[in-house]
């Protein structure tokens, strides 16, 4: 080229540092080949050299120079605070999820990404895993810091760093898994960086498998320290300015002023017709005033005990009034008598309500009174009148982008309720908070371990036209606010109760958001949440609204209340501690009386302290005259079931894992643990010696997400919930229903066995928005000798998640261990053949064998016996004798019959022959006839068979003779 390069034709840049830590400054042409004569390379500054904040390295002189007004510099760092578009160097990458076997028709994660929203960056709000990636090369050790909002623990949020070999840097779990933040509040996270290449990852992924919309993560003000140098200053973004040279940051413009890009000052708006919020890039025209620009308040009680409804403009006021079409501010209402004081307070004819002195009580309408003997005051708070905000409650408003709302209250008192305020936009979080420093149990139950320490109950309703949501949250020991329960959309007036199982300082928070979509407008003021009553029991700093019976000392002269041992109730007739009867459990919050001891369910028993009821793994059932005895100990202490896999609409594979503890007390409960959790929760639980985010109960459920297809390094266990934290009024029975819970045996294949199914009934009293009465569980034990002793757990085929409605869960546990104990009825005897004078007796189980353990099968026995040859010989002899006897009898009767026939024929012939001597009455025996014939009877009567046998017997006796009937008229014939 002919032209000589001038300064505008090139720019300076440093070479990479060599092994000695040196580098060179070289000139790089803007367009290669356009000019000639570039400056020669010169030795540069040291590799670790950097300028101070507010300065930049002027490469021509290689000296630090102050930034001009309207710009700023971090010196050795870079800052990203403007998110109108994705800054250079940042990329958003959605992890490709496996589609599995659920089909190819489900939507993919191609549309999931981090989205710029002006002042902040918003994450995806689905279960897709999306990473925000930025690579930076540091010449020396540095750090990265950023501000974030992370209110929803159903969305995983991790920050980690990789080197240029894609190897993850060593990080503590506290640096990797970020802590939850309160709704609308920003937190700052800082991590140290090593020299060299650092690839920064902000990664999110939902674990909520349902239709509930996730709350996204917000990022802003990402700042990286440790870069070698900055060769230029950054201009201030619109809405900010820096008025003096050498600034390290820009300042937002005040209200009703604005600024453009790189401004050194702000320009005021024409406030008569325009307005601008803090940090505005332009002025906006003031709209006409409407009903959305004012709100209603109740004034505090005056000296006359009167209050009235008033209306105030929402501040800062941006609308125009007094012009055509503008809505005027409504006039104040009539002065009305103030509502009474809340229970535990009194006014004593003054405008304000004061708490009753210690030891006294009031219902709010009467002066304070002392509790009578044998009673003690109850402590707590009961708010049902809302003339002023109570002293221990605070209200505020948080906007997603601007942190706090401008001079706005989150909630406003309204006489018989407190309601959500206007806010500055529809997606503001309207916050109401009450702080309880601790809990104090009544004296009589103060020594009972494991009981509830207090409970909070509130009555509320929501009226919405959009996707509003009311959150109820708690912060234990000022660690981190976690969501206890939430309600979406319109909800009719209802009550909710939460029980505190430990004594700690706690803050309860209600947050109402009209929509979770980004919005800078106020269009849904009619979407409102109302809280009518709030009551907290056993608050250590509470007031007394009544008295409670207590146990008195056994000494006659003492009238002081004394604590009762665990499992004892107060006998109101004697004011003494009385132990609950056997197999009952004590309801700690019940009125002191025998009714506080609730009986355990069928086939269940209570522990020594009467805190809970449980099964001892033994059960009996009588069928007819037979009694079946069951011992479920072989099933083991805890059974586990992992069903699935299931797939979300985005293709994420997940499993449901259930842990079930059938028998045993507190020491044998099932445990479900989350391996990804808020670190502040883990800290508070480790103080008590518990595992992080552990659910310990009779039955619990966890959601398991495998590592493959998620982008996370290990399988995730999350969303652990309790399905059965009590075994109190329920129990074990063969019936299909108990205490309103149906077993529904038709959900399983019917068993043809003679052994009935055994149903274990459980209930969790923890109410949710979808299960107001809590969850319940039925575990059906079925005898199946084809299974192992531990057996297999299964769920109904039409309810693969174990439940069809989310409130009642069903499990079938088929096992040989669920069969009854064996008895003598379950086997029978078999006799063996007689060999060599000995015979074996064997015992075998009756098939199919439907028993386990119990009576053992008797051993084989051998008995003496007669041989088969003897009986054959005896039988042959008897047979031969019988045959000879029969032949002899047959011959005799044949001969006898012939003789009788002969005599009969002669008699007939003689009767028909004409006699020569008339008048003969009879025939005599003729001379010369066989004398043997004289022995025959003349008159013959046919004898019976018995008579024939008798005759045969008498024939052989010579002294016997046959009788012959003779006619008396022939004496000579004799």
From TrEMBL:
It is found in: Cell membrane. It is a single-pass type I membrane protein. It holds the Pfam family ELAPOR1_C. InterPro entries: Elapor1-like_3rd (IPR056609), Elapor1/2 (IPR039181), Elapor1/2_C (IPR056606), Elapor1/2_GBD (IPR056608), Elapor1/2_MRH (IPR056607), Elapor1/2_TNFR-like (IPR056610), Growth_fac_rcpt_cys_sf (IPR009030), Man6P_isomerase_rcpt-bd_dom_sf (IPR009011). Gene3D superfamilies: Mannose-6-phosphate receptor binding domain, Tumor Necrosis Factor Receptor, subunit A, domain 2. Belongs to the ELAPOR family. This is Endosome-lysosome associated apoptosis and autophagy regulator family member 2a. It comes from Tetraodon nigroviridis. The lineage of its organism: Eukaryota, Metazoa, Chordata, Craniata, Vertebrata.
């Amino acid at each position: 080229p002919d032209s000589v390069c001038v300064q505008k034709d090139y720019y300076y840049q440093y070479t990479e540092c060599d092994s000695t830590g040196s580098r060179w400054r070289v000139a790089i042409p803007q367009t290669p080949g356009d000019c000639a004569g570039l400056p020669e390379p010169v030795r540069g500054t040291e590799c670790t050299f950097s300028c101070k904040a507010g300065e930049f390295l002027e490469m021509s002189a290689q000296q630090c120079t102050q930034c001009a007004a309207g710009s700023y510099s971090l010196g050795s760092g870079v800052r990203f605070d403007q998110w109108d578009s994705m800054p250079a160097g940042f990329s958003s990458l959605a992890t490709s999820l496996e589609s599995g076997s659920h089909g190819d028709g489900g939507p993919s994660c191609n549309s999931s990404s981090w989205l710029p929203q002006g002042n902040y960056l918003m994450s995806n709000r689905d279960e897709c895993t999306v990473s925000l990636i930025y690579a930076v090369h540091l010449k020396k050790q540095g750090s990265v810091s950023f501000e974030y909002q992370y209110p929803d623990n159903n969305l995983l949020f991790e920050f980690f760093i990789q080197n240029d070999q894609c190897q993850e840097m060593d990080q503590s779990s506290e640096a990797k898994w970020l802590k939850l933040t309160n709704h609308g509040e920003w937190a700052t996270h800082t991590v140290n960086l090593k020299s060299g290449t650092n690839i920064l990852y902000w990664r999110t992924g939902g674990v909520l498998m349902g239709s509930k919309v996730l709350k996204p993560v917000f990022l802003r003000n990402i700042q990286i320290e440790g870069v070698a140098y900055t060769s230029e200053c950054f201009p201030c973004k619109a809405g900010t300015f820096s008025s003096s040279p050498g600034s390290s940051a820009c300042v937002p413009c005040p209200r009703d002023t604005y600024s453009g890009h790189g401004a050194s000052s702000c320009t005021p708006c024409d406030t008569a017709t325009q307005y601008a919020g803090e940090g505005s890039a332009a002025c906006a025209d003031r709209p006409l005033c409407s009903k959305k620009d004012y709100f209603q308040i109740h004034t505090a009680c005056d000296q006359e005990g009167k209050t009235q409804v008033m209306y105030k403009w929402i501040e800062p006021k941006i609308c125009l009034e007094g012009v055509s079409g503008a809505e005027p501010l409504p006039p104040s209402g009539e002065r009305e008598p103030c509502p009474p004081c809340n229970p535990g307070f009194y006014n004593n004819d003054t405008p304000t309500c004061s708490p009753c002195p210690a030891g006294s009580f009031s219902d709010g309408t009467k002066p304070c009174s002392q509790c009578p003997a044998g009673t003690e005051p109850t402590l707590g708070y009961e708010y049902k009148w809302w003339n002023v905000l109570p002293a221990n409650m605070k209200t505020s408003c948080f906007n997603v982008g601007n942190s706090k709302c401008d001079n706005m209250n989150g909630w406003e008192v309204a006489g018989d309720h407190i309601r959500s305020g206007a806010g500055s936009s529809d997606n503001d979080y309207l916050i109401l908070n009450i702080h309880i420093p601790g809990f104090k149990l009544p004296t009589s139950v103060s020594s009972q371990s494991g009981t509830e320490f207090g409970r909070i109950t509130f009555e509320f309703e929501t009226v919405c036209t959009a996707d509003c949501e009311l959150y109820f949250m708690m912060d234990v020991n000022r660690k981190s606010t976690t969501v206890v329960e939430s309600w979406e959309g319109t909800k009719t007036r209802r009550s909710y109760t939460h029980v505190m199982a430990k004594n700690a300082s706690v803050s309860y928070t209600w947050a109402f958001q009209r929509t979770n979509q980004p919005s800078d407008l106020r269009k849904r003021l009619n979407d409102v949440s109302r809280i009518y009553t709030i009551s907290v029991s056993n608050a250590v700093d509470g007031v007394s609204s009544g008295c409670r019976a207590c146990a008195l000392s056994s000494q006659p002269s003492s009238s002081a209340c004394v604590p009762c041992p665990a499992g004892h109730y107060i006998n109101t007739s004697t004011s003494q501690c009385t132990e609950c009867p056997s197999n009952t459990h004590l309801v700690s919050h019940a009125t002191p009386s025998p009714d506080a001891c609730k009986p355990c369910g069928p086939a269940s028993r209570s522990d020594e302290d009467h805190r809970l009821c449980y099964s001892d793994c033994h059960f009996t059932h009588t069928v007819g005259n037979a009694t079946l005895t069951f011992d479920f100990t072989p099933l083991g202490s805890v059974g586990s079931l992992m069903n699935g896999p299931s797939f979300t609409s985005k293709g994420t594979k997940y499993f449901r894992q259930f842990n079930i503890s059938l028998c045993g007390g507190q020491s044998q409960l099932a445990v479900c643990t989350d391996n990804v959790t808020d670190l502040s929760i883990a800290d508070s639980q480790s103080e008590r010696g518990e595992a992080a985010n552990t659910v310990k109960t009779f039955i619990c459920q966890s959601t398991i997400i495998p590592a493959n297809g998620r982008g996370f390094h290990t399988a995730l266990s999350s969303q652990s919930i309790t399905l059965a934290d009590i075994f109190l009024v329920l129990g074990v029975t063969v019936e299909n229903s108990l205490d309103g819970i149906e077993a529904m045996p038709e959900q399983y294949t019917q068993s043809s066995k003679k052994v009935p199914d055994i149903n274990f009934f459980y209930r969790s009293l923890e109410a949710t928005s979808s299960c107001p009465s809590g969850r319940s569980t039925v575990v059906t034990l079925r005898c199946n000798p084809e299974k192992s002793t531990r057996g297999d757990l299964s769920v109904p085929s039409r309810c693969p998640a174990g439940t069809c409605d989310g409130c009642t869960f069903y499990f079938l546990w088929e096992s040989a261990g669920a069969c009854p104990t064996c008895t003598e009825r379950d086997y029978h005897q078999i006799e063996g053949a007689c060999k060599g004078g000995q015979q074996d007796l064997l015992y075998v189980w009756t098939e199919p064998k439907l028993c386990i353990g119990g009576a053992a099968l008797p051993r084989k026995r051998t008995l003496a016996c007669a041989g088969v040859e003897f009986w054959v010989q005896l039988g042959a002899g008897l047979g031969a004798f019988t045959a000879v006897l029969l032949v002899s009898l047959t011959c005799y009767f044949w001969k006898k019959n012939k003789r009788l026939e002969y005599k009969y024929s002669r008699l007939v012939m003689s009767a028909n022959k004409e006699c020569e001597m008339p008048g003969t009455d009879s025939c005599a025996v003729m001379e010369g006839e066989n004398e043997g014939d004289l022995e025959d009877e003349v008159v013959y009567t046919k004898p019976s068979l018995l008579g024939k046998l008798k005759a045969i017997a008498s024939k052989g006796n010579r002294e016997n003779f046959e009788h012959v009937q003779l006619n008396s008229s022939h004496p000579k014939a004799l």
